[in-house]
Amino acid sequence: MAYRELVRRWHEAVRAADRGHWDAALDTFGGIAEPPARICFNMGCVQLLAGRPEAALRAFDETIAKDNSLAVGYFQRGFVHLQLEMYEEALSDYHMAFSHLRQNPFIDYKQLGLRHILYAWEVLYSTAAVQCHLQQWQEARVTLEKAVVWRPERRTAILELALERVQDHLFLEPMLVPLGELFRPRKKEVEQLDSKDFLGKPKVISSIIPNDEYIGFEPLRPQKQGFYEPSPDALRDAESGYHRVVSRYRPEEPAGPEVAAGSLVFVLSRGADGWATAIHDGQKLHIPSSLLEPASRMDKWKNSTGIPLPPAQVPPSRLHAKQKPDPPGGENASAGDASAHMDSKVPPRRGEASPGAARPAVLRARWECSLVLRAGEPPALPALRALLRDRLAQLAQRGTLSYRLPDGTELGTVSGQEDLGKVWQQLTDGRLTLCCQDLDSHSGRPVLYRMLAQHSYLAQGPGDLEFSKGDVLDILSEVNEDWLEGRCNGKTGIFPKCFATQTSCGFL
At a CB cut-off of 8 Å and minimum separation 6, what does 94 contact? Predict the structure, then answer.
């Protein structure tokens, strides 16, 4: 067995004995292959603590067999022999212990890990105790008188009392190593059991990467600027953040960087002229705002250029409905197609005249309504269409209109012409989205159960339910194993199931 493993088990066994777990300590000591004399001595002492003198005797026999010069081993075995009424063997052990003191008044075993000093007078005192049991009273008196010669200055009283007891033919109690004292491994060896990192951890002092606070070890990587967000002080307005380029952009300047469709850029600011200042691949550039759309958390998570982004809570894959192929452009093109063409239109360069009111705008309206139908046979398709037509007509008259900026942030409700005028001022990129929802559409639906939001969730689309950490969500239906439909703060929508956990709070 390697010495490192021996020290580890030795330390574990001693700690178990200190806690009073005798069997656990003995099992750990017994797992040491070819234990040295000090381990065998410890096993004998633990057996004494457990009240098993026969097993302790076998352990001390093995101790002396491995080290026949260990005086404290003979001393402890003599005590066990005396407990088992094996007086001749005990007397022999005490004589051997005294002889291995080699005319020294004591032996300090602290250097070997045992916090005990074995004195010569203690060995002679225990020898006299055995002679008393053998009815050798005169020999016991001589032995005690010899112990007086080896006694320390402050031990005269105990020896004088022992002489009086021998004179009265009374037995003496033998001495032993205090219970609980064991050979222990060296402190430095125990401290070296756990591996240490002498090299330490590196810290970035200067880097070309903005806000690079990377600490750790990894294979060499090129020092290329990645997509870490600047600090809050570096942001100029609330529109700063990651955006995706919807179509390819080629600047008019030959030296300007070209941005491919689908690339991620970090927008620093947006101008009123329709141009945005952004950073792409470590370079600052000006790009039309109409070519940008807010990047979702999933888009930023999938970014593989430069340094990976820090981990973040991301929603699962969204539901994908079957989509029909886009109709060819022409007179029958839908408003959605017109919007797509408007997104890729490049605004005039800085300093050029803006068409102003002649510039086309795309208004997207999203409707949300519910119908109550009888269960059983499905209704006829023409009848269902008629119901939807009537329902949408009613919703158009009394539905609540709310507007959102292109980044998906809902600002408020359109309740009058004045609100509509304020909304129209937000139309900077030629796009505006209005949501029409019936507030009573979900009032009759039962709540299946409630969940507690563990993370804040920002809506990724008009149909998503946005909430903050700690909000209570009313679950209306289970869309699939990853997405749920719920209600929070008077709003209804879908959200990832992994952002919330079920709660046991009762319904009001």
Answer: 74, 75, 78, 123, 126, 127, 130
